[in-house]
Amino acid sequence: MSASASPPKMVRATLIDFPCDFPIKVMGFKDPAFVPALVELAKAFDPQFNANTISLRESRQGTYQGVTLTVRATSQSQLDDLYRSLTGHPMVKVVL
């Protein structure tokens, strides 16, 4: 290696700067138990989760419901675990 070689570049594991407020979109069948189930999951990963920040959107025919949850993300592993929990929930069809 020559004396003029530049130092190695640091590679970031994620493009997200933690901690941050992170929106997650979840879709599932419209059911009265859907949003409370999502709130329970969100609070398991973000104890300070504020359910008042949820935004809802129904599908055109009213069969499905889109829910945006904004959690306080503290690490990539926290987000990964939350995504796994959401995608594994029987009422959830899609997580973005």
Approximate strand percentage: 25-35%
Unreliable sequence segments:
none
Provide mean pLDDT, rounded.
92
Largest sheet: 4 strands, antiparallel
Shape descriptor? elongated
The total count of helices amounts to 2
**Alpha-carbon distance between the two ends:** 45 Å
* Largest sheet, spatial ordering of strands: 2-3-1-4
**What radius of gyration results from the CA coordinates?**
18 Å
Could you give the order of the helices and strands? EHEEHE
**Relative helix content:** 25-40%
How many individual β-strands? 4
The computed structural class is alpha+beta
Structural commentary:
- The protein is of the alpha+beta class.
- It has a domain at 32-95.
- The chain contains 2 helices and 4 strands.
- It has helices at 34-45, 76-88; strands spanning 20-29, 55-58, 64-73, 92-95.
- The protein has a 4-stranded antiparallel β-sheet with strand order 2-3-1-4, with helices on one face.
- A hairpin with a 5-residue loop joins strand 2 (55-58) and strand 3.
Tags for this entry?
single chain, 96 residues, alpha+beta, four-stranded antiparallel β-sheet
SSE layout and pairing:
Layout: E1 20-29, H1 34-45, E2 55-58, E3 64-73, H2 76-88, E4 92-95
Antiparallel strand pairs: 1-3, 1-4, 2-3
What's this entry about, in short?
This protein has 96 residues and is α+β, with helices and mostly antiparallel strands.
